[in-house]
Specification:
- Fe(2+) binds at residues 51, 53, 57, 96.
- The protein is an alpha+beta fold.
- The chain has one domain: Jelly Rolls (Sandwich).
- The chain contains three helices and eight strands; from the N terminus they run H-E-H-E-E-E-E-E-E-E-H.
- Strands 1, 3, 4, 5, 6 and 7 form a six-stranded antiparallel β-sheet that branches. Strands 2-8 form a two-stranded antiparallel ribbon.
- A hairpin with a 5-residue loop joins strand 3 and strand 4 (77-83).
- The chain is globular and about 40 Å long.
Length: 142
Amino acid sequence: CCSLDADKYENDPELEKIRRERNYSWMDIITITRDKLPNYEEKIKMFYEEHLHLDDEIRYILDGSGYFDVRDAEDKWIRISMEKGDMITLPAGIYHRFTVDEKNYVKAMRLFVGEPVWTAYNRPADHFEARERYVKFLAQTA
């Protein structure tokens, strides 16, 4: 999308512009590493469980690195490598999972439109309207 400088995330006009344009009103920062994240092992397992959300998932990597895995139209995994400065938007209804790499460290900004809803629906979750909308969208772009 753009070139963001993760070192100046606290005061970055580019980031502010994105947040304004996309209405990302809510924001926090999560550090996924053994000594910073309570229940690290449990959380890592949870993030890696295939799931979807009813809202978009927006992540901006401030430091470290990791992987988002998403399903393609044929239901095969695609691995997306994320590192410092990368931002990703996973659409509502897409099956995905996240994992750290061998460094076991990532610091990410979580952005949200309105109040955050963290509910993850593990697969199968095909009955949700968000999933049906996403599947329709995939069919149109195929």
